[in-house]
Amino acid sequence: MANPEDQGMETHTSPIEKLRAQCLARGSAGIKGLARVFHIMDDDKSRSLDLAEFVKGLSSAGIMLGSREAQQIFSLCDKNSSGTMDFDEFLEVLRPPMSAARKQIIADAFHKLDKTGAGVVSVEDLHGVYDGRTHPKYQSGEWTEEQVFRAFLDSFDSPSDKDGKVTAEEFLNYYSGVSASIDSDDYFVAMMKRAWKL
Fold it and tell me: Has the keyword Metal-binding been applied to this entry (predicted)?
């Protein structure tokens, strides 16, 4: 008799589509939250996980997949059959497909924010790029401009580990979730241009 845990919620949905749907159901933070769980579990900083670590990470993130489905996803992402799954390859498979135009406009927005060119956006990068003084909590005196900047960065950061720094990967993961809800490339690009004054 088949293990019900190993059967997908919908028989026509592949395991990666099921995982993607669970992440996207959590909003734009879903994929980046899962990525953050995997980064935390990566004790040796190899940017890869074995199958046991992958299954444990899914469970820690509250992802409901059966063991067979987890194995299928792991095998799909372990391209060289080394017994480990590379983070970047996993995220590339997990992200909803995006056109080159969408990826480019997201990269352009990130580079505009990354004033220091360090590949990580921090509070220091936001000075002169984002005006925190127009935020209602700053205007009411509840927050300093630094607190406004930190809250802004937290919106792109993982809900489980807000470190005040946003990598290009976290930024792409955030906008991957936004992108999934917008059908038109032209609309998405126009929205990003308006939002980031590109």
Answer: yes
The pLDDT, as a whole number, for residue 191 is: 93
- Domain of 114, CATH number, reads 1.10.238.10
* 133 and 184 together in one domain: yes
Whether the CB-CB separation of 89 and 49 falls below 8 Å is answered with no
Domain of residue 188, residue span: 100-196
**pLDDT value, residue 124:** 87
- Rounded CA-CA distance 112/66 in Å is 41
pLDDT of residue 159: 58
Number of structural domains the chain divides into: 2
Entry pTM? 0.64
Angstrom distance (rounded) from CA 62 to CA 159: 13
The model's pLDDT over 25-72, given as tens digits with 9 standing for 90+, comes to 887 677 777 887 888 878 777 888 889 888 988 888 888 898 999 999
What is d(CA 65, CA 73) in angstroms, rounded to the nearest whole number? 10
From 110, 23, 7, select the one nearest 68 (Cα to Cα). 7
Among 42, 72, 94, where does a domain finish?
94
Residues 165 and 132 in one domain: yes
Q: What share of the chain is helix, strand, coil (3-state, %, to 5)?
A: 60, 5, 35
Indicate whether 112 and 189 sit together in one domain: yes
Give kind and range of the element (H or E) at residue 166: strand 166-167
